[in-house]
Recover the amino acids of this structure.
């Protein structure tokens, strides 16, 4: 088993990996930027190393500094989490070249799946269903227009080397093809330094379904069933669940098999996710493969009873998978909601500032993964996620009820969050019926955003004072009328240093 793991990440995923390491007896090393010096993942780690300034380009994307931190602290492996360098084949190879163990797939698999056009070619050879499309490095715009007509409108222009919803344009008429090509190329060049694009048929009312796969270095590859991630805003996932309410048992078996075939086609090892787009009838086509741990992996853990991060670490240490496909069962229903510091009423702009008070929900069937704690700051430099709230129950209806209750009990003071938006979405008849498609949120946004709440004077005073007196917990609790626990270091009524109430006599 591995002895010491450096986590090349921050926030909730770094905390999640550290918890898995602790359970396996693996020591942990955190890396941090200047603004993360007091962050939760730094406090939780056994060791921590500063790697640069706040901007990711000066810290969490600094390959040499991260590898140097691993060598300096005696770490024997590096876990990349998700985001940042997690799907960077050059980083994975640099880790291996430094004599460290990479907790992830081979660099060759990352590279093969990193360019969507190359991934499509591999999947076609492996017999994995593909969305009808067109790709060519030599074709001119006129040929793209001709091929769009052959595929049939609507078509999607997609960046070849991209992800995260960037470099995507939907075209419904021929006259819009060339402007869409030009626009997508500009965005792709800016985001990925790669202007290549390709065409795919756009699936109307498509459902986004992904298959969790896991493989060891002994040739054993299994799937851990599917997750549905159709609740999206601008191609970004909002709610994820397992199992998918769309699939029949037969369709579930077929899509799981396709996910395994996709992983085997690239010699995959460790945990990964194969993403598909499904029609309302359940016909599915390959989209892409994420060669890392997914944000939404907790829903799979809850319905299978397996710890994906621990399994990642065991596979990386050279162990074989301790089960076969027949041993894995899907029980109950799990749902995950991403709680962000953002303002839905202002176009979902990030809401930066101090988190004056954060109280996550608890109770049976409720799990919270978070890297935020009271007093932390949401900054402009990183993703504004506050927490992932995950609920589990025997049925989908019960899991939805449990999620609505959990979100209603979640306390985040100091920054605006998307919780009211999530509660509205969770109660919508289309969500309750399990009929969400990838366009639903964008096309029904006006009815999903509740009116902005009125903020009273006490809350505004709390926000102003928190910066000046350096006691955000005290200010928040006094302003919002909630008592401070006796253990809170800012509670003057619990102090034994001579503090007393002043007399008014």
């Amino acid at each position: 088993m591995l002895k010491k793991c450096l986590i090349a990440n921050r926030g909730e995923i770094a905390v999640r990996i550290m918890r898995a390491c602790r359970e396996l007896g693996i020591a942990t090393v955190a890396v941090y930027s200047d603004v993360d010096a007091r962050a939760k993942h730094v406090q939780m780690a056994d060791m921590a190393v500063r790697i640069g300034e706040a901007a990711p380009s000066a810290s969490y994307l600094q390959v040499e500094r991260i590898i140097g931190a691993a060598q300096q602290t005696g770490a024997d492996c590096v876990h990349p989490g998700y985001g940042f360098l997690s799907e960077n084949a050059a980083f994975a190879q640099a880790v291996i070249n430094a004599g460290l163990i990479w907790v992830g797939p081979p660099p060759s698999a990352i590279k093969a799946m990193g360019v969507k056009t190359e991934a499509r070619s591999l999947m076609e050879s492996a017999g994995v269903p593909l969305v009808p499309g067109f790709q060519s490095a030599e074709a001119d715009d006129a040929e793209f227009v001709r091929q769009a007509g052959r595929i049939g409108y609507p078509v999607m222009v997609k960046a070849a080397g991209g992800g995260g919803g960037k470099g995507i344009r939907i075209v419904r008429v021929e006259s819009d093809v060339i402007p869409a090509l030009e626009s997508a190329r500009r965005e792709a060049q800016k985001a990925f330094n790669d202007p290549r694009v390709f065409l795919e048929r756009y699936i109307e009312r498509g459902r986004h379904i992904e298959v969790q796969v896991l493989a060891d270095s002994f040739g054993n590859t299994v799937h851990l069933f599917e997750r549905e991630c159709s609740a999206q805003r601008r191609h970004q996932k909002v709610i994820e669940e397992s199992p998918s309410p769309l699939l029949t048992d037969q369709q579930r078996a077929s899509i799981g098999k396709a996910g395994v075939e996709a992983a085997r086609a690239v010699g995959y090892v460790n945990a990964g996710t194969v993403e598909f787009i499904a029609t309302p009838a359940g016909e599915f086509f390959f989209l892409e493969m994420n060669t890392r741990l997914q944000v939404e992996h907790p829903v799979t853990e809850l319905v299978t009873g397996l710890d994906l991060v621990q399994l990642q670490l065991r596979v990386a240490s050279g162990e074989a998978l301790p089960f076969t496909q027949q041993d894995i069962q899907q029980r109950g229903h799990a749902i995950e909601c991403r709680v962000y510091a953002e303002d839905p009423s202002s176009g979902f702009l990030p809401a930066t500032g101090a988190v004056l008070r954060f109280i996550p929900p608890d109770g049976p069937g409720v799990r919270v993964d978070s890297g935020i704690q009271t007093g932390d700051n949401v900054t402009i430099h990183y993703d504004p996620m506050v927490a992932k709230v995950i609920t589990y129950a025997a049925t989908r209806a019960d899991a939805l009820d449990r999620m609505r209750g959990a979100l209603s009990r979640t306390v985040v003071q100091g920054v605006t969050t998307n919780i009211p938006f999530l509660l509205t979405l969770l109660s919508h008849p289309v969500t309750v019926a399990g009929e969400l498609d990838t366009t639903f949120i964008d096309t029904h946004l006006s009815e999903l955003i509740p009116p902005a709440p009125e903020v009273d004077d006490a809350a505004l005073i709390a926000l102003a004072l928190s910066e000046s007196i350096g006691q955000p917990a005290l200010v928040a609790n006094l302003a919002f009328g909630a008592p401070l626990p006796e253990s809170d270091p800012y509670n003057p009524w619990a102090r034994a240093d001579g503090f007393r109430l002043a007399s008014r006599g």
Remarks:
- Residues 476-505 have pLDDT under 50 and may be disordered.
- Residues 249-265 form the longest helix (17 residues).
